[in-house]
Amino acid sequence: MRIEKLDQNTKKSLLETLLKRSPNSYGKYEESVREILDTVKDKRDQALFEYTEKFDGAHINADNILVTEEEIREAYENVDPELIDIIRKALKNIESYHAKQMQYSWFDSKPDGTILGQKVTALERVGVYVPGGKAAYPSSVLMNIMPAKVAGVEQIIMVTPPGKDGKVTPTTLVAANEAGADRIYKVGGAQAIAALAYGTESIPKVDKIVGPGNIYVALAKKAVYGHVSIDSIAGPSEILVLADETANPRYVAADLLSQAEHDELASAILVTTSEKLAHEVSDWTDRFIRELSRGEIIQKSLDNYGHILIADTLDDAIDAANEIASEHMEIVTANPFEVMTKIRNAGAIFIGEYSSEPLGDYFAGPNHVLPTNGTAKFFSPLSVDDFIKKSSIISYSRDALEKIHTDIEKFAEAEHLTAHANSIRVRFDGKDFDEK
């Protein structure tokens, strides 16, 4: 890995390089995505079947687009029972963590007849996109479905591309069934996002779409936002390790590579105050790459977006970490909890040398759907909050409104909204009779 001195120039260059990976930088695909969306909106199921045959090589129709109970039973027969048990253990941790995020309706009443409050309602129908093919991630299925289930969403619709045989990856089906998906449809890509956003004869329109996908899926979600809600525009995976001289270089190198193996656009960054650690980590990454099955992908990722930055002080390292605002951040320092209090921007924070990033990906419980490309400065991980909406409650008695009605009228008149003022005034002008 390249080793650089951390200064304003290297930090600026790094930030500019990382931003180039954003889905917003791939405008050349937007026209193709728009065409797919419009075609599905117009031709509905017919377009879904044609695109599925074109892009996935599968013959899907109205009779087999919906995954059957028989297909789910078959999937269980093809998945290692030990893996099913692990999925259930992880699911229990995910459910327990997200249950603590639940919000409830509340009301505040006062003696003068004023009642204010907030009504919390789960979304009625949510769509979950799950990648297919070689990118089959049952952990992502759990992370996207479970918070919706905890929130109380009435119907969870999952879409995922089929293989050429017209079937869905068994581990994906098992994870979806365990997590509580209500319906699973065999369709992927931008056409699946269009189906969820607009509805077709087979697939009902949803209120919100969540889940990761390729650039076509990301741009399709961006295009339908406003027509439906979405979670976020997901970018390539990234990790930043903040370490001092106490860190184990072998652990740090292994953790950096755990994200670099996702794809060639993934980013792995070490920010450290120790030049000795920097060189040791670089050496260990070279050794690991020779042993790992996805070594070629890892090497390309590190060549493009891998960095080791040496900072003069821990405060400088923390400032850089906050500027980068990484999706995953590991803190491996002498006093990691103290450092954590100074971190403002990160999707998920892993504290201590035994809290490696894959712990969060699979098992601990917090959601692994996290903000990328610096959006951790203003976005949060996927949570129960993403599957609820809030309505304000306002109720005033006559006595309560009478005390303040002139204030409201004056406020409205100051904005030249006389109908607003009149809506309040008519209740107190003494003309509550039928004037004919």
TrEMBL record:
GO terms for molecular function: histidinol dehydrogenase activity; NAD binding; zinc ion binding. Keywords: Amino-acid biosynthesis, Histidine biosynthesis, Metal-binding, NAD, Oxidoreductase, Zinc. The keyword Secreted does not apply. Pathway: Amino-acid biosynthesis; L-histidine biosynthesis; L-histidine from 5-phospho-alpha-D-ribose 1-diphosphate: step 9/9. Zn(2+) binds at residues 259, 262, 361, 420. It catalyses: L-histidinol + 2 NAD(+) + H2O = L-histidine + 2 NADH + 3 H(+). The keyword NAD applies. One of its GO terms (cellular component) is cytosol. GO terms for biological process: L-histidine biosynthetic process. NAD(+) binds at residues 129, 191, 214. Binds 1 zinc ion per subunit. The active site is at residues 327-328. Coiled coil: none annotated. It is an enzyme of class 1 (oxidoreductase). InterPro entries: Ald_DH/histidinol_DH, Histidinol_DH_CS, Histidinol_DH_monofunct, Hstdl_DH. Substrate binds at residues 237, 259, 262, 328, 361, 415, 420. Its EC number is 1.1.1.23. It holds the Pfam family Histidinol_dh. Its cofactor is Zn(2+). Belongs to the histidinol dehydrogenase family. Catalyzes the sequential NAD-dependent oxidations of L-histidinol to L-histidinaldehyde and then to L-histidine. HAMAP family: HisD (MF_01024). This is Histidinol dehydrogenase. It comes from Mediterraneibacter catenae. The gene is hisD.
